[in-house]
Write a structure and sequence with these properties.
The protein is α/β, with parallel strands linked by helices. 46% of the residues lie in helices and 13% in strands. It is built from 34 helices and 25 strands.
Length: 956
């Protein structure tokens, strides 16, 4: 039941995949990578499609089939290999035992042998020359360690996942499995595909070009006899994108020209930020340049995480560990000058980690960075502020790495003491693999920064392929110092020739991603001035007559600034030039031109920039100060206004979003949706569950409950999807029914647990469904609802509670259903940005709801994951509610005190709102979608130095 089809790089054959996904009743979509999965879901708008990255699917299958086994983490894998290298008798490795990268080389060799399908008894034969025998013994000891402890690494667990499919198939079998996006298949992946095909219809779609068969020979070899049955997917050829070539004097000006070109496109309306991608074969080299140049030209960009070991603050800490006390290398560690190294003698990893943490604590590195940021002679510009914020983020990630290393070493059960040198080597290996989030938060669409492998299957209107120099794309690969190239070829491992083929395939992926315009760029010299030869890929295409143009290095100069900046951005650049100066003569010329054209605007603009960069919230941060505006706000949002619970929750999370969404009523133009959005899905599920519990003579454990739920789902789906295509209606009916049945299974489990652990009079029963207070009664709400509002201080609040469960003793629990991500308890107890549940708990008691006198708890009830998190509960009633999240369970006195404190917090929030606090100051992480994202000026680095809350600060 296996169908292999090949997708031409020169035809949009993905349309065939899309049509099959839509046509199948219950397809399971398994792409090779996450970008391809996201692009498919975005193109199809099928949020209900069952999908998972292929490797993640096999890992989950392994976890379900082998519950007595566990997967080894990359950190633990490095710890184990490092321990074995130190303790085994491996004289061949003694001279390089502490060499950085030795552990990584061992991990790579073991991985490649397993991926090539080399059996364990053939490892010594595969590694029979040079230092190979030492690595063979190391691999054998590593595998023995795993098996003795019932642990599997990534390659083993993929094989075990494939074996589980062979033995049991899939429990909830889909109608068809569609697999896409592979350049080759490893032994484990091929075995898994074959196992799936033995039980289910499987379509395997692979990219292949019959005009260049040698390039795809590894793919054909990995498919084996399957390839004889492969057929091309029928699709129309793609229109060739317009493409051009840009040469630059050096990498900095290369990326600067890319940034200017993108900004010009955005200003001319030729594209949106998320319709542009920059593809680099050396992301670690280009990431910082891209971030800096895009920020300079005001282009939002989405960057991958940054390597932790390259952060200056981490480099300074490593210098201290090596006994280098030259404080001039880092301004963050000035007071550490002359300090003795924090580690001195052999000790367990936990002791080394604890000693290092104790040494770093008194240095107050975060405070030093903040002091440098806010104690500078002149206010920092955005670039300097962002740099300081990134260093704080890197330092926190370093501390988390220490904790993870300590825990992992304890979990691995390795008792040996490490010398200081060995610990430094181990820590450096871990930092080499660790990353920390790039400080590039953008409230709206952003340019994507990708590596070529992530471009597989994507169709992006404008693509820049940068860094096309020899040695960079394609990258050079020297002969392996462990296994010779000839040995590699004999045993099916990656050779230099195969590496060259892979690089060419990566280039094909990058070029293929462009649908409208392709721009190829290179530097003629590196940063030091040394000449760079062009990439062989550049030379193959540069003489093509169909190219638009070739821009030589002599023409890559900054264009007129009025062509790449809007008037407001020009003025902001002028402020920065006047404040800090600029080495760029073009910027100085631009500053003089703007100063001559708009002298009246300069003083207010500079004053506004000073205020926004000050340590207090001012009117330029969104703090309202005008008396007329405050009077109008008090009239509209004062004592007579009736707040809703969701409205207050929006304000608690972000005052500026509240301003745009609730007061200014900003919203994007309505579009005709071809699918249900998240709000419609949530509304449909709310109606289904409310009507289900209103059913007469309901027996939750009887088979009739499933029938009733199916009937209600069919009825509600017909109403909600009336405007959709018939195929989508049925797909949504299945998806909603699946969620509803999963919710029913969770409800039954809760009831069974309560019946076993609590007295009958203590057991909870859904009593009030869609109970409304403080609002006009509307169809569908509980008939016992009230129009009386909840009064807190001088304010009135209304809302609709999804569900209230009561017992026979006056206790009650409130639930707010969530069809998306479920909040955490910390959102209520610590950050205090989730307020609906506390408001509902207070309202049920204050408004004298019959049977609801003593709150037992309340929570957000996830309809997708069936979790009841983000709430607060009485610990004494655990037998009744059955929640196991310890952070949300409180004793009776703290529970009542917490509700009182939250009530005071809600009143203070409404006081702040009426006092004009509408600042750009989010108190929770910005969501993926925000209605004010295109006008928000949130800057995390600038807010680091603000003191106090905006509502309590005076305006300057």
């Amino acid at each position: 039941m296996l169908e292999v089809i090949w997708i031409s790089p020169t035809a949009d054959s993905r349309d065939v995949i899309r049509q099959r996904l839509l046509a199948e009743e219950r397809p399971l979509y398994l792409p090779a990578g996450l970008p391809l999965l996201r692009q498919t879901l975005r193109d199809l708008r099928l949020g209900h499609l069952e999908s998972r990255v292929f490797q993640g699917f096999l890992e989950r299958t392994f976890a379900n089939a082998h519950r007595n086994w566990r997967a080894i983490s990359p950190t633990e894998q490095r710890v184990v290999l490092g321990h074995l290298i130190r303790t085994l008798d491996l004289p061949e490795l003694a001279p390089i035992q502490m060499k950085r990268g030795l552990v990584k080389a061992a991990e790579r060799i073991i991985r490649e042998m397993k991926e090539a399908g080399i059996q364990r008894d053939r490892w010594p034969q595969a590694l029979s020359q040079g230092k190979g025998p030492a690595f063979a013994r190391l691999a054998e000891a590593y595998q023995t360690y795993l098996e003795e402890r019932s642990i599997a690494d990534r390659q083993d667990l993929l094989m075990m996942g494939a074996a589980a499919i062979e033995q049991k198939g899939l429990a909830d079998a889909p109608s068809r499995v569609i697999i896409e996006g592979f350049a080759t298949l490893t032994a484990a992946e091929r075995r898994a595909v074959g196992a799936l095909a033995a039980h289910l219809p499987v379509t395997l779609a692979v990219t292949y070009d019959p005009d260049r068969p040698a390039l795809f020979q590894p793919l054909v070899a990995s498919l084996g006899d399957w390839w004889h049955g492969a057929t091309p997917a029928q699709a129309a050829p793609l229109a060739a994108p317009a493409y051009r070539f840009i040469e630059a004097p050096d990498p900095a000006r290369e990326i600067a020209h890319v940034a200017r070109t993108i900004k010009q496109m955005l200003l001319e309306g030729r594209c949106q930020p998320d319709e542009v991608a920059i593809i680099s074969n050396q992301p670690d080299r280009d990431r910082e340049l891209v971030r800096r140049m895009m920020a300079q030209y005001g282009v939002p960009v989405s960057l991958p995480p940054e390597p932790l070991i390259s952060a200056p603050v981490v480099q300074a800490i490593l210098a201290l560990l090596q006994g280098d006390d030259d404080a001039a290398k880092s301004p963050y560690l000035k007071q550490a000058a002359g300090a003795a190294p924090p580690l001195a003698a052999p000790a367990p990893v936990a002791d080394h980690c604890a000693a290092l943490a104790r040494f770093l604590g008194p240095l107050q590195i975060e405070q030093q960075i903040l002091g440098l940021m806010h104690g500078a002679a002149a206010p920092l510009d955005d670039e300097a502020a962002a740099l300081g914020a990134r260093q704080i983020s890197a330092y926190r990630a370093f501390l988390r790495t220490l904790v993870r290393l300590e825990r992992t070493h304890q979990m691995a059960g390795l008792p040996a003491d490490l010398t200081v040198t060995e610990f430094r080597s181990l820590l450096t290996e871990e930092l080499t693999e660790a990353t920390y989030p790039a400080q590039n938060r953008s409230p709206g669409p952003a340019v994507r920064f990708l590596v070529p492998a992530q471009a597989e299957g994507l169709r992006i209107p404008v693509v820049f392929v940068v860094g096309l120099a020899d040695g960079a794309f394609p990258t050079a690969r020297a002969d392996d110092w462990v296994i010779s190239d000839r040995q590699r070829g004999a045993h099916g491992l990656t050779t230099r020739a195969r590496h060259r083929q892979v690089q060419r395939l990566q280039f094909l992926r990058a070029v293929r991603a462009a649908s409208r315009e392709l721009i190829l760029t290179r530097s003629v010299a590196d940063a030091s001035g040394a000449a760079l030869l062009p990439s062989v890929f550049w030379e193959e295409l540069v003489d093509d007559e169909s190219a638009i143009a070739k821009i030589p290095a002599t023409q890559v100069t900054p264009p007129h600034f009025d062509r790449v900046f809007s008037p407001g951005e020009l003025l902001q650049r002028l402020v920065q030039v006047l404040r800090h100066g600029s080495p760029d003569p073009h910027e100085i010329e631009m500053a003089s031109q703007v100063a001559h054209q708009a002298p009246d605007n300069l003083a207010p603009r500079i004053a506004a920039e000073d205020a926004r960069r000050s340590a207090r919230y001012t009117s330029h941060d969104g703090r309202l100060t005008d008396p007329t505006v405050l009077t109008t706000l008090a009239t509209r949002r004062g004592d007579a206004h009736r707040y809703s619970a969701s409205e207050l929750e929006t304000y608690a999370a972000c005052p500026f979003r509240y301003l745009g969404e609730r007061i200014l009523r900003l919203q994007e133009p309505d579009e005709e949706e071809a699918d249900l959005d998240a709000a419609e899905v949530g509304t449909a599920l709310h109606h289904i569950l409310a009507e289900f519990y209103r059913s007469p003579n309901l027996d939750l454990h009887a088979p009739a409950a499933e029938e009733r739920l199916a009937a209600l789902t069919h009825q509600e789906t017909a109403r909600a999807t009336a405007r959709l295509a018939p195929a989508l209606r049925e797909a949504w009916r299945r998806q909603l029914l699946k969620q509803a049945l999963a919710w029913l299974a969770g409800e039954r489990a809760i009831r069974r647990s309560a019946a076993q652990n609590a007295q009958p009079e203590e057991q909870l029963t859904p009593t009030y469904l869609e109970w409304s207070f403080g609002q006009k009664l509307r169809p569908g709400v509980d008939p016992r609802s009230t129009t009386e509002p909840l009064r807190l201080g001088n304010y009135q609040i209304g809302g609709i509670i999804d569900r209230i469960d009561t017992d026979g003793l006056g206790g009650y629990v409130v639930y707010d259903y969530k069809s998306g991500r479920t909040p955490t308890a910390g959102d209520i107890l610590n950050r205090r940005v989730r307020l609906q549940v506390p408001i509902y708990l207070i309202a049920a008691r204050r408004l004298a709801l019959p049977g609801a006198t003593t709150p037992i708890g309340g929570a957000y009830y996830g309809l997708r994951d069936r979790k009841r998190t983000g709430g607060i509960w009485r610990k004494s009633k655990k037998a009744v509610h059955g929640v196991t999240y310890h952070g949300s369970q409180l004793d009776d006195a703290p529970f009542d005190e917490t509700l009182t404190a939250l009530e005071t917090h809600i009143i203070r929030l409404m006081d702040d709102l009426n006092g004009g606090d509408l600042t750009v100051n989010p108190r929770a992480p910005c969501p993926a979608y925000c209605p004010v994202r295109t006008v928000c000026r949130f800057d995390e680095a600038r807010l680091e130095g603000k003191t106090g809350r905006a509502g309590k600060e005076g305006a300057e």
